[in-house]
Amino acid sequence: MDHATRAAYVLLCLLAPAGWGLWVEWVFHAARRRRGGRDADSPADEPTTGPDRETLGE
Amino acid sequence: MTLEMLDPTGVLGSPGMILALFGVGVLIGLIGGLFGVGGGFLLTPILLLEPFGIPDHIVLGSASCHGVGIAATALRRHLRIGRVDLKLGLGVAAGAGLGSYCGSQLASGLAVLWAGDQQITFQLVLRAVLLVVLGFVAVVTARPIRPDRDALLQRLPFGPLRPVPGYSDKTFSLSGAVVAACLCGLVVGFLGIGGGVVYLPLLVVAVGIQPIYAARISLIVVLCSALCSTAGYAWRGNVSLAIAAFMVVGSSLGVQAGAMLCQRLHGDRVRRYFAMVVLVAMALTAWRMAQLLQHAAR
Asked: For B81, which of A9, A21, A43 is closest by C-beta distance?
C-alpha cells in the first residue's frame, strides 16, 4: 500500500466518525430547539465524560 | 482504496454481524448518555469476546475510531455552551495525544511481534492491562474523590506553573500534567478506549481541578487522544471502518436516549448502575481471559 492511499485512509478514519457524530448532534440539537421545550444549550443539558460528577465528590 | 482496507474482517458480508455491531453501538451510546462516559471501557471488552471473532488489533483500532465520533459529539455540545478551557485542555491534550499514538504503535507492534503461535501472549497481556484499568475505574467509582486537598501536581515544583481552574490561589505544574497525561495516553491508546474514565480522575486527583471544569477539559483531551490513537492504528491498517461505522451510527442514536434516561434517575442510583457496568466489563474480560488460559493449557 502506498503512502498516499494510507494517508487518505487515515484521514477517512478520522473524519468519517467525527463528521457523523457532529451531524447527528446538529440534527438532535435542531430538533430540541424546534420543540421549543427546555433550552437545548442550558448547562443542565451538558454531557460529561468519565465517572459521573457525584462519583468524583462534586 | 480497496474494500479490504475498509472492511478487513468481512463484516459487510454478514447481516447478523452488522446488526450485532449496531446493537453494541446502541448499548454503548445508551450507557455513555446515561453515565456521561464515552463507553470505550465497555466496548473493548465486548468486542474482544469470542462470538465476534474480530482480531484483537482490529478491535483496538476500530474501538478507537468509534471513540472519535463520540468525543467529537460531546465536545461540540460543550463548545456551544462555551465553557471549555481550551488553553489548558490543549496543553494536556498534546501529552495525551503523544501517549495515545505511542500506545497504538505499541499495541500494533506487539500484535505483529506476537503473531501466529504467540498470539495468545498478546491476547493475555491486552486483557491483563484492561483488567487493571477497569479495576482502577472501579476504585474511583467506589471511593469518592475529594478535590479539596492539595493535589500531587500542585506540590510539584517543576514549571511552568498555571493557575488551577476554579481556584484563585492554587497553581499546578503544567509540565507534570503533560507528562502524566502522556503516561495515561499510553495505556488508553494501547487499549483503544476513549479514556475519559482515566483522564477525568487524572485531572481531578492529580491536578486538583474541580470536577465540573475537569469534565470539560477532559473532552478535549479525549478527542485528541482518540484522534492520535486512531491515526496510529489506521496507519498500520488496523482500523475496520465498517465495524466503526455501524457502531458509531448505533451509539450516536443510543447516547440521545441515554441522556434522556439520565434526567429521570437519581444521582445515587446512577452511581450504583455505573459501578455495575464496570463490574460487568471486568467480568467479561476475566471470563475471556480464563477461556484463553484454558485454551493455552490444552
From this structure: A43
Nearest to B88 by CA among B169, B198, B163: B163
Contact check, Cβ <8 Å, B215/A48: yes
Beta-carbon count within 10 A of B61 CB: 32
B65–chain A Cβ distance below 8 A for any pair: yes
| Rounded distance between C-alpha atoms, residue B1 and residue B210, angstroms | 46
Mean pLDDT of B168-192: 87
Partners of B173 in the beta sheet? B161
Q: Looking at residue B283, what is its pLDDT? A: 92
Over residues B242-255, mean pLDDT: 89
- Identify whether B55 is part of a domain: no
B50 in any annotated domain:
no
B19, part of any domain: no
Contact B35 A52 (CB under 8 A): yes
Mean per-residue pLDDT of chain B: 83
Q: Which residues of B touch A20 (CB under 8 A)?
A: 69, 245, 248-249, 252
Is there a contact between B141 and A18 if contact means CB atoms under 8 Å apart? no
pLDDT tens profile B216-242: 788 888 889 999 999 999 999 889 898
Q: What is the mean pLDDT of residues B93-112?
A: 92
Q: Say how many domains are in chain B.
A: 1
Q: What are phi and psi of A5, to 5 degrees?
A: -65, -45
Host domain of residue B144:
64-240+251-293
Please check whether residue B276 lies inside any domain of the structure.
yes
| pTM of the full structure | 0.86
